[in-house]
Amino acid sequence: MMSKEADRMLRVALVGNPNSGKSTVFNLLTGLRQQTGNFPGVTVEIKTGRMRFPSGKEATLIDFPGTYSLYPTSSDEKLVTAVMSNPEDAFFPDALVYIADVTHLERHLLLLTQIIDLHLPVILALNMSDTAQEMGIKVNTAKLMDQLGIPIVSISGRKEDNIQKLLSEVEKILKTPTRTADNVFFYKLSDSQKQIADAVRHNLGIENPYRALLLVHHGDWLPFLHKQQREVLRTIAETKDFQSLRAQVDETLDRYDRFVPIVRDAIQHPPAFPSTATDRLDAVLTHRLWGPFIFAAVMLLIFQAIFDWSGYPMDAIESGFGILSEGVQSILGEGWFTELLTDGILAGLSGILVFVPQIALLFLLIAILEEVGYMARVVFMFDKTMRRFGMNGRSVISLISGSACAVPAIMSSRTIGNWQERLITVMVTPFISCSARIPVYLVLIGLAVPAVKVGGVLSAQTLVFGSMYALGVIAALLSGWAMKKWLRTREPSFLAIELPEYRMPHWKNVWLSVWEKVVAFVAGAGKIILVVSIVLWALSRFGPGNAILEATQQAHKEAVEMQLDSNQTGDLVQQRRLEASFAGKMGKSFEPVIRPLGYDWKIGIALLTSFAAREVFTGTLAVLYNMGSEEGDINNRDENAAKATLRSKMKTETFSDTGQPVYSLATALSLLVFYALAMQCFSTLAVVRRETGSWKWAALQFFAMSLLAYFGAWTVYQIFS
Amino acid sequence: MQRRYRTIPDLKINESACTISISDAALACKLTAMGVLPGTRIEMVRTSPFGNAYYVKVDGIRIALREEEAASILLEV
Prior knowledge:
A: 721 residues; 7-stranded mixed sheet; 12 strands; 7% strand; B: alpha+beta; 40% strand; globular
């Protein structure tokens, strides 16, 4: 045990307020050597990376969420308190680097003084020293160092100034932890707080009085405490009549009283802050009228960009996989193993990777908006609107991200402090039309909606496409509203958000953020898509008893009678085999359920296969309607021969009992509504389970969305048929 | 009787006033941690497009506050 402890990688923590430039420093020190891991108990992911010291030694760098204080108001911030107050924690650092914005140092030191009082070895990094210099701010580092009693380094994360110096300082305190003397505290505990700390030490054996006090403050939620310990802490608080909130405010004010004079003494500001570019920009960007207008324009631009730019790489990926799959087929020959590779694994991989360009592009644009500081303004502008629907201004970011992929979007809800608002955001985000729905929309609209102009301007197809997005947004907002009526908690909810200065995006941060989101999608959603894809392949490849074999023989016989060529025979065989497979049987037994929506059993199979990834829908239909294998790729976004063929095949399809045509405008619209509203993504459900901590919410989401989709589709079918 | 204090919603655009205290304990905790302290000057910059939120400046930093948050900050008359 001892040797293991000595061998383990040293841990360095990065802490600081929001907007201190912490993540820039983290990205600078670790680059792509980053990982995210789950933190048990508070459903927050924690980012770690490898950092290398000038000596060549390495340590794990842990990036903690930006927080103002050890008295947290969101699950993000709770993580910091949970780790810092528990030396047994797997993330408990051997040394800390506290990043502070030196241009606003007076309001960046609260958390630092709390960390000093926990007697953790810490270095203060005065970030943005380049900006400070430009602004004419003079910092007397020696004086600060003397007063705070910790090492201080002036750095610039953006200009990469003095980073080596910071690293060597960190290495120094790792070697010889220069902790503050045990009896020196920034905040002097009151007499009754001292008694409380004594009682905690006596009962739980916690020596540091400030840590003892933190435990009493947070005893009801700190994840590492046992039930018994919670009891003890509660009893101590009750007997000493401890008022947590009040004590928190008093302590905070007391700390400010102590460190503000120190900062003022050591830092000379120029006489006044000039009116900055930020003020002039905000006069327009957060204007009562222009603000929302510009936001709408920005959103339109983003979506326009996605449609215009991501098509090319998507097509390239699809055709790349097509070639690969043909290659595998020609090398291995026919057989179930080849099919497993091509129709199961490669199809699954292609289904994952084809979305990467779109997701990367959307998250690139979102990351830029976030980096320049615009997202905080969006939160400010739409807080009221979102609150009506049970959410929070911060939910807007999750909902926008949801239009790429719900998986990273749901993970971005962690900054929402109020549990109910966060839960509602998690529950309704999947209603937003994600990139996987786009191919389905495009094919269905292309098939059903005539390419005419409405009012001479907008094409009817564009209009229906836009309505699908609107439907998703409306469904998200209304279900948020319904959940708000149903849930009702009295937990406090905050907006209180800092609106940072506008600045040019720091590209390294942008790229790393995009990378992180893409990895979240590929690793989170991708794994599940792959598994489901393989399961579905098996379901459509195998059937009960000899059903597949018989179907194949029958198809060959028919082909001979109809004098089909080898390609056409192959297509017919494929179609008949799918019909006879487990998936086919499921689709048929499913038909009575979906008949009221205007679907036959073939669409039923397509709906089932959509659970791997929604865009599989079109591929399945192509097989079922016996499309020629030579007619190209149905998922191609442009009007092509494949689509035209599918359209004509679908048009001639009739219900076997009534002889009515299956495919009509009503069916297409009903399918569109179904795909817009239905929960058809196992990956999202898995993330919802993880983020909410139970299957309960994921199950509720699945059933509620499916029911809504069913009745929505039914209504539309009844209206239009 | 005239009130002894005002709150942010009472301020006109570009008007500023000094903070006396924060009336709600949970909010006080959050706001003081962000640097909204008794004695600091708060300047009203603008209200949000759909109302109910305020854009204020506190000592050179910009903060967005909800109606309840803004109303809990008691200001000198």
